[in-house]
């Protein structure tokens, strides 16, 4: 899809929902796969950028239709509109992104509640019957870059100190045995940019963007909250274990986190718009990894 303005999206939406003609339209986000339009701060419309994104959006809506009723956490109740172009709509889950500074500003009580809420979300998600999810098109999550590609593309971009650290990460990652808890359906995108957090109340109102959900190694689910804080990950893991009876390997989560940062750098090594931030991401994790989880 050619990128459209808010006014052009407004025309498309009103052609299906004429009752929204007097509402305020604004672009909410420019994601990798879709453009999001906020209408009156109460509705979200997502427009996929290409045919691959269209199929992903349709699958996401179908999966949410099944899993939403099984979760304590609020998730979007998406509806697909055939268009053309194909787009989705759902009621907006009120809240803002949660970043590191936001988390550090929370009280101890609110930090613990957040960890408990996310642990319950993951426990409920991981307990779902895989059969219906497979039938709706849920498949393996996208693979990371290989260690060989990381050595080729990422390491030359790092300082000597970070490159030495990265070599240790690669050694640890390649030595990992298969996940002791196997493969599960999960979210696999639980960073703060996919959260609707009420900063006034200090609570998480919901989670969105299930486009990357699918079947993957269970421990990998717990790396993304490290983008917010290793302390949050520690709380999630500690609360998840008694809910599920699964013992999680903190060192494995830390190694996966480190390799994921390197994989992202390798993937975007040739993109000047992102390579700098990905190097910073590797450095940020290297600075806290020894006391991560």
Q: Describe it for me?
A:
This protein has 293 residues and is α+β, with helices and mostly antiparallel strands. It has two domains: 6-91, Phosphorylase Kinase, domain 1 (2-Layer Sandwich), CATH 3.30.200.20; 100-291, Alpha-Beta Complex (Aminoglycoside 3'-phosphotransferase, Chain: A, domain 2), CATH 3.90.1200. 44% of the residues lie in helices and 15% in strands. The protein has helices at 6-16, 51-67, 100-105, 108-126, 130-135, 147-154, 160-174, 230-244, 250-267, 275-288, and strands at residues 25-30, 34-39, 43-48, 79-81, 87-91, 183-186, 195-198, 203-207, 214-217. The strands form three sheets. Strands 1-2-3-5-4 form a five-stranded antiparallel sheet. A hairpin with a 3-residue loop joins strand 2 (34-39) and strand 3 (43-48). The protein is globular. The mean pLDDT is 93.
Order of helices and strands: HEEEHEEHHHHHEEEEHHH
Percent strand: 5-15%
CATH architecture of the largest domain: Alpha-Beta Complex
Please give the domain count.
2
* CATH topology call of the largest domain: Aminoglycoside 3'-phosphotransferase, Chain: A, domain 2
Radius of gyration: 20 Å
Please estimate the helix content.
Answer: 40-55%
C-alpha geometry:
globular
Query: CATH homologous superfamily of the largest domain, by name?
Result: Aminoglycoside phosphotransferase (APH), C-terminal lobe
